[in-house]
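Table S2 (text version). Query chain:
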Amino acid sequence: MNTMTLWYITGWEFAALAAAALLVGFSKTAVSGANTVSLAIFAAVLPARASTGVLLPILIAGDVLAVLTYRRHAHWPTLWRLFPAVAAGVVAGTLFLVWADDAIVRTSIGAILLLMAAVTLWRRRTADALREPESVTTRAGRAKAGSYGVLGGFTTMVANAGGPVMSMYLLSAGFRKLGFLGTSAFFFLIVNVSKVPFSIGLGLIDGHSLLLDAALVVFVVPGAFFGKWAVNRINQRLFERLVIAATVVGGVQLLLR
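Corresponding structure-token output:
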């Protein structure tokens, strides 16, 4: 990949990338899954594969801010159950990127996101009550964590689109708003940092992409502060609906592009 092409963007295109970076900050501290819109903007402005390498450091910056904001609310038993499956998904995603073209990647991720949203909506309509996060310690909970973990690792490696998959898992596991945000903050900080060597090896991150990141990362901060302000004014039901809606929008736009 010739990342020199990253320099040939117009002022309007840079403005679009800056808005997407601001939305990353907002999604990390308010509505997880909303950064699928950022993913779409980056892929529209930059070459699709190159966009994943540019976006990854932006996401890590948002993850750091989210951890600083919600670090007391993480549920570590859930995280430890997820990480082995996620690691397998990341490896599978790396192998997939070696041969898959952009069209296959978009179609695969979009279909997975819509499937996860449908399953979550069905489970919530048929369940008498939300499960508690501790349900991950049961056999069924471990199986669910494993399946979502593999999908989350795969989608986050292939297209930085693991947010909606893990959002669907955390909602289906019964996490309330702050627990949801705290657990997802640590999850994505650890997972995204672990993806950096793979992305460098695939040629998705280099000096040119990092210079563009340096110009964009400043926009993540105001987005994160706005998200922290907004989340205190969003009730639980609206929060869940926004997360699911963002997942559906992300899945549809990936299928239609």
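Notes on Table S2: Residues 1-5, 128-132 have pLDDT under 50 and may be disordered. The longest helix spans residues 102-126.
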